[in-house]
């Protein structure tokens, strides 16, 4: 009987470090969302770096039960921390089909010691951090005067738990500089690869490193949650916040919230859930944007808006471990330092970086076209905006609610009275209209009215009135006291680093990067992969490894030697 198993494979010409991968175990009872769990498979091109270098990493977000690419998350948070858990670098990155390859720069002044890559999705933040992927790496600063201790033994390389053996056929004999070669991968009988996930190939200088016993199924303690705070980012980045009572701390349900991006006046809205949380999607946008968030309808005096961080800010400290290097690791570091010294004598080889592009930022108001636009210059100047609305703008009225004035719109559509009127000033929602209505009309350039029930996201408005100031300065008014000015960090498109092609570099300029090839998305086995050597001599190790749906390792091993031309 054939083995019906799904595999994720990665091919490497190096012993590469792999982060701890949580696999399916005993599922906790509780909130149904605990069944929709994700895990991150995080790997880097090596585990020893010099300060100032770039960590290349690949990450795949998988469903924890099936180990198929997750359909919940489109973005991944990746952090670099020191041994004390201090966050040094943070990126919110866009994935492609549940996978991404990118780089994180190590600062030139980092001290020698352990550092950690940590990866998680917005959805994973609803549970405890035990399921985050954590990848430890060693960083050595060549300028650090402190001695680095060396062990007298070498690091172990045994890999327990192998169930499926992949056969590799590397090119025979010693390999020459700047020459094209092929390596053949033969799969064992019964092994079935998983086309959606594919596997990867990495070619790099052999590095002494312990191979983590990664794909072993584990069980987790009860990590259920009473409710979901962080929504899955299925199509875009999210802005998450909460509306609560300042006195009691209780979340307020069914409160409409609006945000306006200051760069474009793009407006988005959402309503709080039963616990007071809201999430607002901003599809097609990357990078960071300043915005203003405010209530859409008049809040109670003690209500407040709190914005939540795009990253997990809970305290985290890795397990303490001593920093030691084996003799083989020290020899490897000497090679890295020598290569850096050689490259410093030559012009840098350019790295191709894919540009990060945003979708077109909308310049028109979100409810365009309005049903009616009133240009104030077409009318005689009245005493204030209240009289202007009363005399000039059809169907828009001003009513008194207690001690406050409120702008409303007469709408004859069925059920319109069940939804609020959205009142905006320069695209920013305002709930107290007294100061606006007392302004001189000369500060307002136009009034835009949408006199129809309008659905925007998960919010419904009976009608919309937008006052456009003459100088785009909020008509000289202060921002509403209930509003919050903030910055949203949206997912970035990863900066993919390309490996220098030796053929594109002058023969007089050495190309001695330790990584020759990193290619992802290979869909089938058996397969023949082409790679090209550069000017770096040494031993290269071929490792094919992955994991099956049951957590068993899939593994293959081979070696090649690159020598100088005779």
Short overview:
With 566 residues, this protein is mainly beta. It has helices at 327-343, 385-392, 434-437; strands at residues 7-13, 38-44, 48-50, 54-63, 75-82, 87-94, 99-105, 113-120, 133-140, 162-165, 167-169, 180-186, 199-204, 237-245, 256-261, 267-271, 277-282, 287-295, 303-307, 372-375, 396-401, 404-409, 421-425, 428-429, 444-450, 454-456, 459-461, 463-469, 484-490, 515-522, 527-532, 538-548, 553-562. Mean pLDDT is 79; it is low at 1-9, 11-33, 151-162, 210-223, 352-356 and 358-362.
Structural features, described:
- The protein has 566 residues and is mostly beta strands.
- The chain folds into 3 domains: 7-221 and 313-352 and 497-562, Sandwich (Immunoglobulin-like); 237-312, Immunoglobulin-like, CATH 2.60.40.10; 372-476, TonB-dependent receptor, plug domain (Ferric Hydroxamate Uptake Protein, Chain A, domain 1, Beta Complex).
- It is built from 3 helices and 33 strands.
- It has helices at residues 327-343, 385-392, 434-437; strands spanning 7-13, 38-44, 48-50, 54-63, 75-82, 87-94, 99-105, 113-120, 133-140, 162-165, 167-169, 180-186, 199-204, 237-245, 256-261, 267-271, 277-282, 287-295, 303-307, 372-375, 396-401, 404-409, 421-425, 428-429, 444-450, 454-456, 459-461, 463-469, 484-490, 515-522, 527-532, 538-548, 553-562.
- The strands form 9 sheets. Strands 10-33-32-1-13-30 form a 6-stranded mixed sheet, with no helix packed on it. A 5-stranded mixed sheet has the order 3-9-8-5-6. A 5-stranded mixed sheet has the order 20-25-28-23-24, with no helix packed on it.
- Strand 21 (396-401) and strand 22 (404-409) form a beta hairpin.
- Residues 1-9, 11-33, 151-162, 210-223, 352-356 and 358-362 have low confidence and may be disordered.
